[in-house]
What does this fold into?
Amino acid sequence: MPQQSSDAVILTNITKTYGETTAVKDLSFSVKHGELFGLIGPDGAGKSTIFRILTTLLLADAGVATVDGYDVVKDYREIRKRVGYMPGKFSLYQDLTVEENLHFFATLFGTTVKENYSMIKEIYEQIAPFKTRRAGKLSGGMKQKLALCCALIHRPEVLFLDEPTTGVDAVSRKEFWEMLQRLKQQGITIVVSTPYMDEADLCERIALMQSGSILSIDTPAAIKHAYPDELYAVKSANMHQLLKDIRQYASCYAFGEYLHVSGISENALAGYVKGHTDVIIKKVAPGIEDCFIRLLLKHE
Ligand SMILES: Nc1ncnc2c1ncn2[C@@H]1O[C@H](COP(=O)(O)OP(=O)(O)OP(=O)(O)O)[C@@H](O)[C@H]1O
It folds into this structure.
């Protein structure tokens, strides 16, 4: 029986190890119904392991997790009916056409494409001109749209998307996030992982993850607001030397064509870069990537 719960996903003290590697460490968090929630972290942070546990494909070593009120161990059958899952690697049948893949997934869930077409219409229309093409011959962006249609065809309550935009071009990435915003408006709970920090801002709440642990969990705005220092973007004619010089005194890392520096005053910074030419120093607002780097340095 489902537990009465206001949250769509709840993890309590979940741990998972693979041999010597602890992929997920005593992790607890929850996702509200209808929320667009992001797991943000680099390769190996433990994102895929969490998705596999929540979609009932992998057993945790310890802890409890529920999806839509159902326990991932005891109630795995109920969960499988209620969730849509788009795994990290392209998981569709390469030798089946676009429409064959879609029909296959609908049949698997005991439904038909016709019955739930309204759910995927907007996304499917973009790939419909290629419906007789084999999935293996689609572009990255089209594969991603087909995989999303297949994950949605049984009208899931909760959608798990594991790095859906990895390896996809910038335009398709943008379109994909627009699709997610529209799905959210239909009331679906979406848990999405990404290694791209710029995508974090498109989620309602995010968990910043590293080595199986959550470093911070909040809205992107609140995480940025909590950044404690002034942050400066600096550049000069010799960026390599600039990095070496500033690193002696402050936290400093390459960020686009600038270095980002925190932990010192603007006056002190100006003093440290005196020997450089073509110097530009400007105060900047921290982004999620700056917050992430700061948290990583703190936990090192
Ligand atoms: N089947 C497995 N056997 C052994 N180690 C594993 C296995 N699956 C994952 N790991 C390890 O567990 C850790 C977490 O992996 P996980 O795949 O959950 O991370 P991730 O954040 O999804 O990263 P990625 O994008 O690389 O999948 C990594 O150190 C990974 O090497």
Summary: The domain at 227-299 is CATH 3.30.70 (Alpha-Beta Plaits). The chain has two domains: 7-224, 227-299. The two ends are 43 Å apart (CA to CA).
